[in-house]
Amino acid sequence: MAESDGNSAKRPTIYDLAEIAGTSPSAVSSILNGTWKKRRISEKLAERVSRIATEQGYAVNLQASLLRRERSRIIGMIVPKYDNRYFGAIAEQFEIMARARGLFPVITCTQRDPDLEFEAARELISYQAECLIVTGATDPDRIGEFCAAAGVRAINLDLPGSNAPSIVSDNFTGARDLTALILSRIERDFGVIQPLWFIGGRGRDHNTAERLRGFKAAHRQIGLSVLPDRIIMPGYSPHKAIAAMGTKTLADRSGLFVNSTITLEGVIHWLNEQRHGSGDIRLGCFDWDPFAALLPQNVGMIEQNVPAMLEATFELVETPPTGNVRLKIPCILRGIDNYPVNP
Amino acid sequence: MAESDGNSAKRPTIYDLAEIAGTSPSAVSSILNGTWKKRRISEKLAERVSRIATEQGYAVNLQASLLRRERSRIIGMIVPKYDNRYFGAIAEQFEIMARARGLFPVITCTQRDPDLEFEAARELISYQAECLIVTGATDPDRIGEFCAAAGVRAINLDLPGSNAPSIVSDNFTGARDLTALILSRIERDFGVIQPLWFIGGRGRDHNTAERLRGFKAAHRQIGLSVLPDRIIMPGYSPHKAIAAMGTKTLADRSGLFVNSTITLEGVIHWLNEQRHGSGDIRLGCFDWDPFAALLPQNVGMIEQNVPAMLEATFELVETPPTGNVRLKIPCILRGIDNYPVNP
DNA sequence: CATGCATGCTCAATCGATGTAGCATCGTTG
DNA sequence: CAACGATGCTACATCGATTGAGCATGCATG
Question: Structural domain tally of chain A?
Fold first, then answer.
């Protein structure tokens, strides 16, 4: 970044304002931080100093202020991506709810990169965050360990860890219900009962494992067993999904369980290329997207209950739990009955 | 937030580490911030202190560090929402590019609320941000004025202001080209040449005004004039779009210019309710969304060139311009030819 | 053996805001 | 008129990291 011009005035401090107003820095400080009544500063001086502060474009130096205060009221969050509705909603709701509680939210995006996750966590702690919400981290325990050593509280959101309280969706039940829905729609629309494909995610990832467990449970419930070669876990990005599916052939009347909206992008791309565009496929997707819901093949989406998850998060923030809780928040199944695709 | 437990150790400082290591705080400081070679600290001591720092979970207190340093390297950004691909991409790219330049990005989301925008800007300046990227602000000049008074550089992104350099998409050309595309598709698919509807945004909003200008220019180009009662500007949110359209009747073979993906959500909802689902409508939308692109009625989307916009932004960050530049970044028209909707 | 220089550290002032302790002035009361 | 309380301020230490100045030691050189 360019050095600030020599001529452009430096940011004014309480010492500058005190000199202009002909008073002391202490008075200025207490006037600007609202404690002036308690300190018996006259209304007259308070008004004059406030006016000068506005004129000079004063903004408190939080570095200095927070250094002196015992609490920062900063609450940090790391999120992996901003490229889908789920994490977007988490970030937005988090900021709103934090502000409503008089806290200062700071969010950092970490690109699903374990090292960047760790560096970002360290950075937020350096900012004196009093609490860290670790969202969708690939290695939450590494961060949890550091937080513990630094004496900062950590809460895992979306993906659980073993050394800090965790709040996750009930992935098993959500996936089981979505799988059951897809299976029943295939039967209704195509008249066939057959195992589905599972596409997206990583096998070591807790949520993917849980969803696969739900996926299998729903199959078992109607006497089907899952075919191992129909489980494709190449990660989350669209192009990885496309590459992984490139090797497969998908019969008509197939059903797909798609593990995330970002994977769904790749899946749809692939289906369109394979001329599977129309009525010969049914799919459901874990996570909600308003436009994806309109895809003609789509029979249902799982919406994770972001407000409930964050409500639970802030409850843990406000009253730290004893022991290592793991909360499961039920998901919302949004069944879809789009216009008929087989006219 | 709950007070930190009395028993949990406070965060260690360089003084704590110095005592443990049996050395001075200065030595510890220089070892941990990388200036120790210049200060002729022995490798042996450096290693020992580093080890102790790791053991103790030390993280530098940025409040103290930044207070002393002359530069913060913090670069702030405010964005209105995280609920669409455009702002999500801006936020994500901004963080990546800032980090690549050795800067510390801090982003705040302001809900399109002018007061919150201003408060957030003030807060970022209080964090000692050296530069503020003001994205999609409803009142950028208010923030620009404050930044000028505080001696902090501001750059307007997405929506222009009059007192700071601005980087905006070429909304006029983008809208004109998209409008021309929709008009030509209506002629091709329906055999009619008629004015389109314009839906979404606010009339006083610069981008909406520019897009409307492009919308009108494209009509003029083929000898049509725009009908004033077909211009609906109720804001951006889906439910506002639905409410505003509730009063209108849309003939078959109509064409719609939709001003944002978030408005499009409401439009699609309304169309489906009105049983306009299938092949009797064509629309185009300003802003890109991968799933919205698959809507059968959709004939094209404008993708704003986020990488180019941020490239230009960081160029301004690095070499502050003289005078009040306003850069226009061309958009990308993504024409879509979805599977036939009139089988 | 005095001098110079390199090595390996420590000391202390500093950044800006905060808050406790304290000072000066004024009016009131016994 | 002394004592006291209220009013309206100021002085100063403090938070943790940084950094220029400086100190002590060891070794080499004339």
Answer: 3
Which residues of chain B neighbour A11 with C-beta distances below 8 Å? 125, 150-152
Tens-digit pLDDT profile for residues A148-205 = 988 899 999 999 999 999 999 999 999 999 999 999 999 999 999 999 999 999 999 9
Beta carbons of A104 and B123 less than 8 Å apart: yes
Minimum CA–CA partner of B144 in chain A:
A57
pLDDT score of A343 more than 60: no
Question: Hey, is A226 helix, strand or coil?
Answer: coil
If you ran DSSP here, which 8-state letter would residue B294 be given?
Answer: G
Domain-embedded: residue B110: yes
Does B90 share its domain with B56? no
Asked if residue B313 belongs to a domain, the reply is no
Same domain membership, residue B187 and residue B113: no
A273 touching chain B per CB within 8 A: no
Instruction: Check if B130 contacts A (Cβ < 8 Å).
Output: yes
For position A239, which CATH number holds?
3.40.50.2300
List bases in chain D with any atom under 7 Å of a protein Cβ. Answer: 7-12, 14-21
**Alpha-carbon distances of A198 from A129, A166, A248, A255, B208, rounded to whole Å:** 39, 26, 13, 9, 43
Separation in Å, CA B94 to CA A11, A168, A274, B103, B310: 25, 29, 36, 11, 7
Domain that holds residue B27: 14-60
Task: Give me the pLDDT at residue A3, please.
Answer: 43
Tens of pLDDT along B131-166? Answer: 999 999 999 999 999 999 888 999 999 999 999 999
Q: Are residues B234 and B253 in the same domain?
A: yes
**Mind listing the pLDDT tens digit for each residue in B278-302?**
568 999 999 999 999 999 899 999 9
Q: What's A293's DSSP letter?
A: G
